[in-house]
Each structure stands twice: as C-alpha cells, then as structure tokens.
Specification:
The complex is a heterotrimer of chains A (about 375), B (about 450) and C (about 375).
Chain A: H1 2-17, E1 29-39, E2 47-55, E3 66-74, H2 77-85, E4 91-93, E5 99-103, H3 104-109, H4 112-120, E6 129-134, H5 137-142, H6 153-158, H7 174-182, E7 189-196, E8 199-208, E9 213-216, H8 219-230, E10 236-241, E11 244-262, E12 265-280, H9 290-314, H10 322-329, H11 334-343, E13 348-359
Parallel strand pairs in A: 1-4, 1-5, 5-6, 6-7, 12-13
Antiparallel strand pairs in A: 1-2, 2-3, 7-8, 8-9, 10-11, 11-12
Helix pairs in contact in A: 4-7
Chain B: H1 2-8, E1 15-21, E2 26-32, H2 38-51, H3 56-62, E3 66-68, H4 75-80, E4 83-88, E5 91-96, H5 125-135, E6 141-148, E7 154-161, H6 167-178, H7 188-195, E8 207-209, H8 212-220, E9 224-228, E10 234-237, H9 241-244, H10 249-252, H11 255-284, H12 292-302, H13 309-329, H14 332-352, H15 358-371, H16 377-397, H17 399-415, E11 417-418, E12 421-422
Helix pairs in contact in B: 5-8, 11-15, 11-16, 11-17, 13-14, 13-15, 16-17
Chain C: H1 2-14, H2 21-27, H3 33-55, H4 63-70, H5 73-105, H6 112-127, H7 131-157, H8 164-171, H9 180-187, H10 196-199, H11 214-234, H12 245-251, H13 263-292, H14 308-327, H15 330-365
Helix pairs in contact in C: 1-7, 1-11, 2-9, 3-9, 3-11, 3-15, 5-6, 5-13, 5-14, 5-15, 6-13, 6-14, 7-13, 8-11, 9-15, 12-13, 13-14
Classes of the chains: A alpha/beta (about 375), B alpha+beta (about 450), C mainly alpha (about 375).
Amino acid sequence: MRRFCTACVAFIMLSLLMQGCGFKDIDKRFFVVAAGIDRTSNADKPYRITLRLAIPSPKAEPGASKSQLESIDTATIAEGVRLLKGHVDKEIDFGHCKVIVLGESLVQSDYVEALTWMIRRRDIQSIATVAVGKPSAEDVMNANPPSERYPGNSLFLSFGTEGTDSPFTLQMFLFDLERRYTERGLDPFLPVIKRDHMTYMISKVAFLDKQKVKLTLSNEETQMYNQLSTQFKKSSIMATYKGKPIVALLTGIHRSYRIIEQNGQAVIRMKVRLRCILEQAPRGLYNSDWRQIEKAFSDQYSTKAETMLDKIRNTGVDPFGFGLRYRAMHRGSDATWNRWVKLYPNAKFEVRTSVKIDGTGLIK
Amino acid sequence: MLHRITTLFAEAKDLNTHRIHNREFTLEVAYIGSLVDESKVSDYILVPFTKEEQSFKTILETNPSFKKIEDPARWAGNLLRGFVLVKLENAIYMLDAARVIRNQNPIAEVESSVQGPQTALSEDLIDSMNLIRSRYPSAELKIEEGTVGTLSMTRMLLLYDQRRVDPTLLANIRNRLKEVTHEMIGAVGELEKELSSPRRALFPTMIITERPDRVARALSQGKLVLLLHGSMFALILPANFFDFMHAMEDKYESLWMTNFLIALRYLSILLTTTLPALYISVVSYNPELFRVQLAFSIAGSRSAVPYPSFIEVFLMLFLIEALIEASARLPRYVGSTATTVGGLILGQAAQQAGLVSSIMIIVTSVVAISNFVVPIASMSYAIRFLKYPLIVLSIFFGIMGVAFGLFIYIVYLCQLRSFGKPYFRFLGNITKKEGDIGQVNAR
Amino acid sequence: MNRYVMYNFVMVSLLNLMLFVPNILFQYRYHGAVSSLIAAAVIGPLFGIVFIRTITKYPGKGVPEILNENYPRWVTVPAFLFFALMWFSAASITVDAYAVLINRFFNPDANVLVILGVMCVICLYAATRSTLSMLFIMEIMLLLNVPLIVMLLVKAGGSDQMNWDAIRTASNYVQSMPKLAPLAAATFIFTGYLNLSIYNRVLPPNYKFKRGYLLPVFGIGVLATTYFIPIGLHGIDGVSSYLYVWSATSDSLAMEYGFIERVLFVFLILYLNLTLIYTASGWHQAMEMIKSCFPKYKPSIDEHPVPRSNYVIVSVFAVITVAALYLLNEKHLTEFTSYWLIIRMFSEYGLVIWIVVHTLLRRGAA
C-alpha cells in the first residue's frame, strides 16, 4: 500500500513537472504543405509570407483536398510566421512542408536571408524542395489543382521521381541549395514554377549566384541542362535532318568532362555519349544510312550545348561545378581557387557528342 | 491404533476405522473413505483376510504393496494422502489405495499443435510420469519426490537427467524449494511465483507447459522439470527469453516457414508493446514522422474525437482487455456472445460515434492479435502488461519516451537471471575452446 | 570471446559523432584534418592491438587489479580517480549533448534538464548492473542497432546527391601537417579497446585475441565515413556551419519508399540507443575504477543483488551530469570536449605504455 502511494505521488509530481512539454494533438495542428516568400516594395515590411495550410479530411480521393491560404506582410520572416499564428486557430507545423517557393522578386534581390531562416529552423526538412515562383510565390500558391488527392500533393509530386518524370523539371533540395550557396565553385539553380490557371507549370530553370538570380534558361535549354548535369535519361533530343525535324527519345546518356589549361586559358572538354530511339521522324528512314542522321544529331547537339554553356559562363555562374572540379584536380589551397576565378570568365567549351541510334521505333 | 487415529482427526464422517477378526488374528484398518478406492481396500485387505487362504501375516510380509510404517507421527499424513493403515500384531503397515479424480484423456489445448503430439500431461503424477518416461526412455532420468506447501503438502516430483544436469543449478533449486513456506500450493504457476528470484519479476523465468514433448526435450538439454500433483502442467527451469518464443510446432513443420514465423513472433511482440505508445507520440508529439498522407488521414479521422490521444488509447485498451478477460472467464457458450458484442463496439460503433479514430481501432486490433502469437501463455501475459509503462512514457516524452522504455526493458531483460543463468543474451557460436565470458568467475 | 572485444571497439567508434569529433575535424579541414586522419589510422590500431595483446595476458584481471598488486596505493588511487574522471566525463558529455539534440529535434518545447534527468535515471539503472550484464546489454543493443546504422551510412554514401568533387577537394588538403586537436579527435575512434581495462575481468582465461586486422579496417571505414560523407553532401566550404552535422546529413537522405519518411528520426533513435549504452558503460567503468580505490573491495563480475555502493557512486555521476548541463551551454560543451579529447589521448596512451612497460619488465625479471 505504501509503495502504491509513493508511486502515485511520484506520478503526480512527474505530471506537474511535465506541464507544457509539447504535447499537442495532431488535430490541433495546422500543417503547412507549402510556403511562399515574396519581396514586397514596402521597405518597412519587405517580406510577404504565404502559407498553404492543409485541412485534413479522413477521405483521400482525387479532388477531395481542401486547404486554406494565409498571407501576411512582415519585417522579418520569423516574425511573420509568429504573426500568422494569430490568424489561425491551431498550431502551425512546418513538419510536412515539402515545397518552399521563393518569389521572383525575392530571388532577384537577395535570397540569402530566406535561405538562412529555412536552414536554421529544425522542423523544415532538409529535403524540402525549393523553387522560384513566377510572377510571385503568392500567385503560385493560389493554384489549386482539381485532381489533387490531398493538399499540396500535386505540387510535391511534380518534383522528384515519385510522380511525374518531366525532363524540364529539376529538383533543388534545401540542403543542396545551402551547399551550393556556401561552396566555392558550385552555384545554385532553382526550378521556376508558373501558375497556369489551376495547375502548375514547371519547365524552366533559373541560375543564381551567391546572392540572386542571374539567368533563366528556355524550355529546350533546361532539358539540355538536365541531360548534361544530372544525366537525366527520360528526355529527348531534336535535330533537323534534310530540312525536317527529327525527335529521338534517349535510352542512355553518359557525360564526362575534363578541364585543361592551355596557354593560360581553361578549356573544358565535354564528351557526351547518347543512345536513342527515333520517336518523331519521316517514314522510310530505316533504310537510309543511320550514320548521317547520327552525325546530324551529334553536330547540332554539340553546337547547342556549347552555346548554352557559353551563355551560362557569360553570366558568371557555375551550376555545373566546374570550379569545384578544378579544385578537386589541383592542390588544396586558396591559390587554386583564386586562379580559377581568373580562368573561368575566359573558359572555352568544347563539346563532343556521339549519338547512337538504337532503332526507329515500331515502324521502318 | 484406532483410538489414537480418531483423536488425531477432527470429527469426520469419511474417516473409516474398522476392527475385524478372523480365526487367527485381529486386524485394525483405518482409512479415509473419500480418498481411497474402496475396491482396492476390499481386494487387498478385506477379502484375503476373511477368506484365509493364506495367513494374512505372510501376505503383509511378502506383498511389496504393504509397507511397514514405524513412526506414528506419519500416520495422519499418510492417511490424508490416500493410504490405508493396517495394524496386525503391533506391526503397522500402509497400503497405497489412493483414488485420484482427474481429467480423462487430456488433449493439449493451451499449447495446441497441428501435427505434433496431441496428448497433454495428466493431473495425476503417475500418468504424467508414464507420458514422460515413454518419451524419454533413459536410465539416467532421476526422480526425486517431495512435497510443497506447509498445509497443502502437495506431492511434487523433481525430474532431471543426472548426467546432463548442471550440479550447481540442482543445488540452487533444492535450496530454493526448501525456502517455499507458502501454506497452499495449488498449481505450478503458484510454485513458479514462489521460486522466481526477484519476486516481482516482469517476465517469467520458468516455462509452464502441458506438452510432454517439450518436457522430454528440456530433460535432454539438462534442464530440471517439476511436476505437481493435481496440476496438468510441468515447470521447466531454467529458461531463457528465447525459449518462450518457440512453439514445439517449430520443430515439426517446414523449415523456412517456421523461421519466418519465429521472426514474425518477435515482430509481433515489438508491435504489441510499442504500437499504442507510438500512436500517442506520433499523434501528439511528432506528426512529421510518417508520410503526409498518413498524417492527414489520422488528423482527419481524429477531428471528431473530443479528448486527447492518450484518453482515446486508454479507452480502447480498456475495452479490448476487458473483452479478452471476459471471453477467457465466461463459460464457453456464453463467451461467443461477449466477443460478438465487443467486436461490434470496437469495430464500428465507437468510431462512428466519434469516440475514437479509425486508425486507433486498427492499432487496438493489431495490439490484441499480435499479443496472442506468443506460444507460452505466461509470457503472453507478461508481454500484455509491457505496453502500459510505455504509454505513460510516451505521454510525457513522445517517441523518445518509447525509445527510453524499450531500452529499460532490454536492460532489465539482460540483467535478469534464471537460476543463475543469463535470461536474455545473444548466444552466437560459443566454442568450448574459446570459452565464454564470465567463466573466470567460476574459479 | 573475440566479439565482446569488438563490440566495445565498434560502439565507441560509431559514437564519435556525439563527442563532436566531426565538428573538430571540419574545423581543421583546410589545416591538417586529412593528415591527422591518416596519422590516427596508424597510431590508433597500433596502440589498440598492443594493449589488447598485453592485457589479455592477465586473465580475469582488470587494470585496477594489475596495478594494485604491483604498486603502492598512493600511486594507484590517484591514477584510478583520474581514469574514472576520464570515463565519466566522456559518458556525461555524450548524454548532455544528446539531451540537447533531443530538445532541438524532437521536443523543442520540453525542458532539456527534464529530458536529461530521465536519461540519467535510465543510465543510472543500466550502469549499476553487473559487469556481465553490462556486456549482454551492449551486445544486444549493438546487434539491434549497428546493422541499421551501417545501412544508413551506406545509404548516405550511395546517395545521388553525393558530390565526389567536394570529397576530392577535401582530400587535396592532405599536404598540411597534422595538428593536435584533429589528431586527438580522430584517434578517439580507435579508443574502444581501452574499455578492456575493466571488461578484461570477464574474458575467459584461455582467450586469444584474433582478427586484429578488423580494428584498422573498421576504424578507417568509420573515420572516412564520418569525415567525407558530410563533406560530399554539404560541400567542403559549408560543412562546418552545421552544429549537428550528422543530423543534418541524415536529414538530407530521403526514404521515398520507406515507412518512416524522414531518415533523421531513424538516425536519432539509433543514436539514442548508442548514447545510452555508451553512457551506461562509461559510468559503469568509472564506478568500477572508483570502487577499486577502496582497499577492501573485491571485484565481482556478476553480483546479485546490486550492491548499494553502485547506486551511490552512479547517483553522484548523474547529479554532476545534470548540473553540468545546467551551468554550461552548447558552446562551452563543444569547447570542453575538444580539450577533453586532447587530455584523453595523452592519458590513454600513458596508460597503455604503463601497462605494456610493466608487463615487459615483469617478464624480464621472471
């Protein structure tokens, strides 16, 4: 009996001690499924924060997703999130925040503060996807795709390999952004999301330096960048052969490059080996000489790649990580890096492509 | 003698005392009518005595069924165990004529098996010994008799293979048996509680079994077996945790499936102990642990529930424990009613009424089902309790609390000893040449 | 039993993350971390194998018994107290650091001292068990956790986010000379063998140390993983900005098809187990060292019930641990740890040399 009483007293003491130790039921929490950060023109309140909050429902069927949008203008991001808590009836939880959209206005001025905030918070996952929202993050957050099964799902599935595998969609994780922000010789890129009525359109990539966006590629260039940097396979290449466009689907891609210093100039020799199957082409190609088609593909691909690489170099950013490769190949010291800083603006790209056609599809 | 016996006993109607005469002798017979087989009394004593085909004195001296008893202090005890006392010319003999009421043809029900032996041990020691002897026909089998319980004086047999048993273990158990001072020992479970070294042990350190094949195997491994009169279960000791997780069936069925089943059992005990606590910690502390979909569906189904998660858990666990207890205690034909009603409440109504979330119902049923996967009932009971401390820890510390609790359980298991043998340890391959850790201690 | 020696080694080497070893290494990544790693990979296993081979010549005896039999008390008692302090502080730093980690990632609203208090009570319970039980606990916990930890490390190494250029860049800084702090940090990975100074009591009399090559192989594997994987995932320039670099690293891995999506939580729970067992083991050894200071004490490896002195000594440890976190903040803890690692290295090698020289002299005399 005495033992029992002691146990009871201990239990009550423990419970008193535990007051307010974070016990909060799931239905008292509001999950942020996507967050958007924009820059406003107001100097006092430079940030606009938009949060997409999920309204949970026991049924998960297409079109059944419900969510709530909250938005606020604020002086600092952290304070803005605190203030938003006053707008809603439940605790805001970032634990399931998978997508963070930075407004175009923000990345064009300075994204560092937002990045630091995200990386410092413990509850935002390091594998959250970061993207640029065009024309603004708020606008992107407003889209509400009708096929969505649960809130935020379609935006999240657009990236990564779980849902669609679009060659125009690159994925940037939060920790990767942080790495590319800090690393000398490797610069960040971000996918660009546009709202198209009620759905999203992600088909471009933006390159940033350590402070702001420098260049946005076109759709076709984005696909090529994706092929060259991540060796993305589920994509296509295009060429004109005898005045007619031919499109081929890649079945294999291999890329390697070396950096050579010639007469004080850096030459980046890139070798690309592609294997493909023709997808859209005039009839009767089967009996013609494939080597000529392959050559047309190779030459045109090389030219386009060199143009794209030059374009990227001219803006001074290095999303490929040529600088890091240079550091990896040379003695570890600051002098190496300083030399590369001088070399890169005049670097020359030589792309050699060899395309091999595996087949012509189901018909000749 | 008769006079002395009648003064020894309280007035009892079934105490039979007779003084009979024939031409030669006067015979005094005393026995307790309800304990003995009357036909045996007449076959062995009354008929030969009255027929006088042979001198009854020579019968007493030659027939080994009659044993001479010198000490009057043992009279009462022997009478109470179903012996008949016979006095002839100042010599007193006793005859075992006990009639034991016991279950007929016992079938293994607690530890049933599909293709293994179907008989269970009997409540009568002789029948049980018959079963064990026939399964363990070894001349090395040693049987010691004794009694436990100062009042019940329950007859008990201690069995072991004298060549395989560990002598220190044997001495240890003999000592322990001497220390049992309880008045009544009715079943092996009670004896087990008396013998186990920390009295409040969370886990059973001896196996209670009804299967003679398990007993025989234990004997072959040098273990000790205790049989108790009037209980159809045997006590095997020492035991380690892993013994409890193996059904005898595992030896009889296909190798791969049984290996899979053993793994399944360990997974089941993990689930049954942690799942309610994990539910609380995921719902109330770290909803980001699982996938978004799961989080939303839990949140959605919980939105109708008015109170915090742990009340929900306690409610459902109370229901399921009560249901299990009710169906175990009720007579068999009423039992099905209880399960049906309970199943209906648990299955649908509670959730539709908004008392619990639908995920919680799944959690409850997983907890209940996976608890019964453990082959030995005493371990199943022990594990049934383990979830509650974890729930309390998870209310205060979330997932970390569950991890803390599991760590404590493992430490507890590792420091537990079953009669000096480690209870929970990974054995691995211990070769005689290399020796085992802790051997230095033995010197 | 070879495997029990290995368990100690594996446990300590995997635990290096909790003692801020990676942080110290990353701090020196441009100034001698890589060469320190190489130096440690030579020194660590060397001392380890020599020590194990020597101490197993004294079956059933720990360091306290060996020294007590040959040296006067006024030499041994201060030495034991010092070693007890070393073990105790390592264990306490670990548990303090982990309590802070829980507070950061699991229950940000909870009071860190309460969490630490509970962890200390758990370790108090575990550390007061007998030496034999301690090894059983260690074995079971490692068998349950290490496969998952290794799986996690392999998954991290095989992640497609891994940037090998950054790793090559980091290894290019090999030419700068080793420094004391990173060397002390890196040799910590090999320090598990020292646990034998108590656990040698339970090893069987005819024990022979075998498969010594596992020490350098496993140690170098852990060393390389600890240092290079975070660099590959966070970049050589950015890696040092993380306070809990391995937590960040595990958070960078996605289990797209796993039951638990955030690898971070799996990682934290695995390391919780490792931390608890390390702390319990460390306190147990410190306790045994202190008990050996009493002249009447006779070591016993499997005592039931637990003697009261165990509870008294370990309670003092627990109180000091909680007080330390109350008085210090994270930054102090890290600084203190880097000093501790250096002192540890010298005292550890001092002890090894002492025992080895003692054995050689005795053999020469005989």
